[in-house]
Design brief:
The chain is mainly alpha-helical and 181 residues long. It is built from 6 helices and no strands.
Length: 181
C-alpha cells in the first residue's frame, strides 16, 4: 500500500486499520505515561501547567483509541505493561535530568509520532475518513507539544542530540513492535 492505493498482495484494509488502532492506542498510552513521569518530578515547578496541558490532550487521544479498540473489537498490544513502566521511567528520568531534558524528550517523542501519523494518513488515502480525520487532529496536537518543547529550550538540554536520537529511535522501535505484538 502506498499513498492510499491498494495493490494486489497488500494487506487487507481491515487488518491495516486494526494495526493502526493498536499501535496508536499503545503510543498514546506511552505518551500519557511519559507526561505522568515528568509531572511526578516537575509537577510543582514552573513547567507543571504545560505538562498537565499536554498530558490532558494525550489522555483524550488515549481515550479515543481505547474506544476504537472496543468499538472495532481490536486487541490492544500485549506490551502495555512494558509501555506503562517504560513510559513513566522515560518521563521521570528525563525530568530528573532537568526541564530542558524533559522538553527534549517531548520533542523527540512528538516528532516520531508526527512522522508515524503522517504515514498513516497517507496510507489511508480516502479510506476511513473519520479515522483519518481523528489522526490528523491528534497529529496537529502532537506538533503543538513539539513546539512547546522547542519554545522551552529543549535544544539547549545537555547532550540534546544524543538524547533526541536515542528517544526518537526508541519510539520508532516501540511503534514497529506494538503494531504486531
Amino acid at each position: 500500500m502506498k499513498d492510499g492505493l491498494r495493490l494486489p498482495g497488500d494487506q487487507p484494509l481491515d487488518e491495516v486499520v486494526e494495526r493502526m488502532i493498536r499501535v496508536d492506542h499503545a503510543g498514546e498510552y506511552g505518551a500519557e505515561r511519559i507526561y505522568a513521569g515528568q509531572l511526578a518530578v516537575l509537577g510543582r515547578g514552573d513547567k507543571g501547567d504545560l505538562l498537565r496541558h499536554m498530558k490532558a490532550q494525550e489522555q483524550v487521544h488515549l481515550n479515543t483509541f481505547r474506544d476504537l479498540l472496543r468499538d472495532r473489537n481490536v486487541r490492544p498490544t500485549a506490551l502495555l505493561p512494558l509501555w506503562h513502566m517504560a513510559g513513566f521511567a522515560l518521563g521521570a528520568i528525563t525530568a530528573a535530568m532537568g526541564t530542558r531534558a524533559a522538553m527534549a524528550c517531548t520533542v523527540a517523542v512528538e516528532e516520531a509520532i508526527d512522522e508515524h501519523y503522517a504515514n498513516q494518513t497517507r496510507n489511508l488515502g480516502e479510506d476511513e475518513p473519520a479515522l483519518r480525520e481523528t489522526i490528523e487532529k491528534f497529529r496537529a496536537e502532537e506538533l503543538e507539544h513539539r513546539d512547546i518543547g522547542l519554545e522551552n529550550e529543549a535544544e539547549q538540554a545537555r547532550g540534546y542530540r544524543a538524547l533526541y536520537a536515542v528517544i526518537k529511535t526508541g519510539c520508532k522501535v516501540a511503534v514497529a513492535i506494538s503494531e504486531r505484538v
